[in-house]
Amino acid sequence: MTNLRIAIIDDDSIFRFIFSKMVKKFPDVHTEVIGFEDGLQALNYFQANKEKSETWPDMLFVDINMPQMTGWEFMDEVCRLELDYVKNIPVFILSSSTSLADIEKINEYHFIDDYLVKPLKKTSFMELLHQYHHKTARVIKKPE
C-alpha cells in the first residue's frame, strides 16, 4: 500500500471537507489531507517544515481567490523564498474562475502542473490522482 499526503489551500471549509472525502475514496492508497484556509497559513507551514521532508505533501492544490494571501501571491512567495520542495511536487490551481487570464497565468510558474475548474468532477479528479500518485506516493511498510 502507498501513502499519499495531499495539501489543499482553500478558504472554503465546505470545499476542503468535500475534497478530503473525495481523496479518501482513492482506492488502495492511504491518504492524508492537510488543509489550509489561505496562502499565508500554508506558507507559514511550509517555511516551518522546510527541513522536515516527512511533513511535506506529495501533491498540492491551491485556490486562487482567498483572503490574507491569494493563490497567486502564495506562488510568488514560494518563488521568492526558494521553497524548492514545493516546486518539485505536482501543483494544481483550483478555481471557480474560467477567466482566460487566470488560466494563462499558470504559464508564469513553471512548476504548476494544471488548472482545475471547480466544481471538480469526481471521475476526472480520480483519474488525475491516479496519474500523479505513482510519481509521488510513498510506500508504507507494514510492521513486522
Characterization of the model:
The modification 4-aspartylphosphate is found at residue 63. The protein has helices at 13-24, 39-48, 71-80, 84-87, 100-105, 122-136; strands at residues 2-9, 29-36, 59-63, 91-95, 112-117, 138-139. It is of the alpha/beta class and 144 residues long. The chain has one domain (2-139): 3-Layer(aba) Sandwich (Rossmann fold), CATH 3.40.50. Strand 4, helix 5 and strand 5 form a beta-alpha-beta unit. The radius of gyration is 15 Å and the shape is globular.
Low-confidence stretches: 138-144
Number of separate helices = 6
The CATH class turns out to be Alpha Beta
CATH fold assignment: Rossmann fold
Query: Into how many domains do the coordinates divide?
Result: 1
Major sheet: 6 strands, mixed
CATH architecture identity: 3-Layer(aba) Sandwich
Oligomer: single chain
Find the CATH superfamily.
Response regulator
Succession of helices and strands: EHEHEHHEHEHE
Rg of Cα set: 15 Å
Helicity level: 25-40%
Average pLDDT, rounded to a whole number, is 88
The computed structural class is: alpha/beta
Q: Tell me the β content.
A: 15-25%
Distance separating the two termini: 15 Å
Count of DSSP strands = 6
Q: What form results from the Cα inertia axes?
A: globular
